[in-house]
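Q: Got a minute? One more chain.
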Amino acid sequence: MSIAKLFSEELKVVNVGSPSFIQDYEKQHVEFIHLDWRPPAEGNITLLTLLNQLRPWMDKINQANLEAVFRIKSAEGRLIDIKKAIDVIPGMTKHTILHAGPPIEFNKMAGPMKGAIIGALIYEGLANSHEEALQIAQSGKIHYSPAHHHQAVGPMAGIISASMPVHILYNEKAKNYSYCTVNEGLGKVLRYGANNEEVLNRLKWIEEEFMPVMSETLKLIGGVDVKSIITQALHMGDECHNRNKAASALFLREVASTIVSTSQSEQKKKNAIDFIKNNEHYFLNLSMPFCKIALDSAKGIPYSTVVTAMSRNGVDFGIQLASSNQWYTAPANYVKGLMFPGFKEDDAAPDIGDSAITETCGIGGFAMGGAPAIVQFVGGVVEQAFNYSREMHEITAGEHQVFTLPPLDFMPTALGIDILKVIETGILPIINTGMAHKDAGVGQVGAGLVNPPMACFEKALIDYTKHLKEVSK
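A: Always. Here it is, folded:
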């Protein structure tokens, strides 16, 4: 076609990559199609070389990832009991404290985590004052370990000490267990680093009164199917990370009548029902261990590049793969979103908590398209929530047909974050989460959206490729 003929016809404009020209087209009323394109791996030659080196193994990698997704989808999660952590969590001792995120030393911990540990030491009777608790915390007498290393998870600081009651979930498919503390509710709570008398009294009440009521209840009814509740709640406007209104109500419906039938006193039964009823986030501490138990069932799959854990300790963000127990870490990002009245962005600590296990399992931020009301809490608009849920399918190895989103025509949630697809596309997993104040005890100061650092995925790729070459020698 000649140049003269080309420009005598109506032009069809396709804008590739950079959106910087879009405003010009719009001002001139020129119709155009925008192709949101970027070079693979953002054009990083080192990463592109590594991706290219994996081509001979792609059949094995894809097969391994399908196996990982299958195991995660197949997992069941039945809440069977509530007991003290020391009685059920593997490796737990009186001088062990579990925390959120990858490994970290006490002196390097964020303010909310240090505050929660001080509260836990007083709660356990290992210290009588904040000053004594701080000395003990720094003395080397306490063993700090990620909850993830003990089949457990915890929101925000994620602190679990010996006497704390934990939910016990069992997966009949893989015969594995997971554990999580009881959600304290909102306000001054240990998970945000609060450690005053009110906080410790509530923890004691959960241990001495709530736990016996719920333990007897769960034995009487034979446990509660947590996966079924998540499935229903996703159809009722929850995403089961920051919005748990429907899920908590559904859980209360499952247990309320049986609580009334227990041998506990009338007042204790009433208090237990009121505690769940008045705590819309109660179910978070059930959705998290469900996701943990499902993802753990995909552990130990050679060649898999599927992520089985995303977690943060307020300093570092870490991920793990189905094929490795290694942590791949980078400095945690700050959450961007809506601040509560009286607070500013500088007040917030970096991203913290094990609760990103929900996104790792395809709910939470991945399911925001089914929970449009969540944007009022984390910021943004409803269309963004829809787009996030769609976009996550570009970086996963499969989808969760049981977890579906009605506003998106019952689209399954994306499942099985694949580090290769994250690096190739440059798309990072989306996480919706609360913001903790950088100082212990202040509490939640906002909520918003955050991504893992890309460096976590890059380190994982480098290590994965190295081990693959060694195994293949």
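A: The chain has a mean pLDDT of 93.
Q: Perfect, thanks.
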